[in-house]
Amino acid sequence: MSAAAIRSMNRTLLLATAPFLGLLAWLLVSNVELALSDSAYPAHKLSSPDWSAGTAAARDGLSAAESLAQGTGQSIRKQVELYNKTNADMNQIAEVASKQASRPYQIYDKRITSKLGKPASTMNSDKLTAQLFYLNTQNFKAYALKIKLKKDDAMMLALGKDEEGGSETTLEAVKRYKAAIGVNGGGFADGGGKRYPLSTTIVDGEYVGGFQPTIKDLFFVGMSEGNKLIGGKFSSKSQLDAHNPKFGASFVPILLQNGRSTEIPAKWQTSPKRAPRTVIANYKDDQLLFLVVDGYNEKGSSGATLAELQILLKRFGAINGYNLDGGGSTSLVWNGRVVNNPSDGQLRKLPTNFLFFA
């Protein structure tokens, strides 16, 4: 750029800035003060919070919560009332159902009881219900004992003095065990001054003297773990064990099976013809029936024949029946009292007795 051009630019800039330079010089020499009014920067005022609005909102919230709580409480009370009512209704339904379910048993029990007559005495507890009947027949005096077992420990077979070879009367066994009822058990054989149970005998689930296979007319009769009567001829231990025997004894002969009379062996029809007898039987609802017959002696002139007992068992509605030891062994103890008239004039000591607990 030429010197002339530069000078021209300088003059232009000087002319452009001259007014500003003059104003600045005037301000410096004129002592002029510049002041801004308060309105130039207005003060910011802090406002306090409006607590009244929050308090009202809190009150509204608490009121709503209280109303909700009251409503919930009422709802819970209604639910509890409904639950209690439903519970009561269900209990009533269960009670009615239980009564309806027991009606067939009650009808059946009433029917079989009516065949025995009016009970002379009754025992009823949480363990059993037992009824004692006096039977009036043409040829002999007899007693019937009908028992419904309710608990597993309501019945047992007691071994004489709790030892193999031991013996005691039915009344002694009843007193020793504090039982309510006692009936004589199976047959026996004497030896060496001791009295041993005949053939297979089970006490508390254990075989006394081991298992003995059935021979001739012998049978085993007892109770299973489920309080069901087990009876019949068993050729092997495993065959009997399959029935879960709890206790039982042996004698001769079988009288009734599945509601039908069995053929009585000729020997037992006449040896003896008549005698004091004890029979154990069952009903289709698993109640037990004992028939106990009085006789004056074992010579065959008094008491009942086995055929007559078969007739009675069928008449009374029994399903299965088994002849227990009879003659002087026949014993019936009820509530601490000997009911029958022992043919020996007194109770005979026996190796096995059936006991019942009320």
TrEMBL record:
UniProt-listed InterPro entries: NAGPA
Keyword Hydrolase listed: yes
Keyword set, alphabetical order: Glycosidase, Hydrolase
Record-annotated Phosphodiester glycosidase domain positions: 178-357
Molecular function, one GO term: hydrolase activity, acting on glycosyl bonds
One Pfam family named in its UniProt record: NAGPA
PANTHER family according to UniProt: N-ACETYLGLUCOSAMINE-1-PHOSPHODIESTER ALPHA-N-ACETYLGLUCOSAMINIDASE
Name of the molecule in the record: Phosphodiester glycosidase family protein
Organism listed in the record: Cohnella cellulosilytica
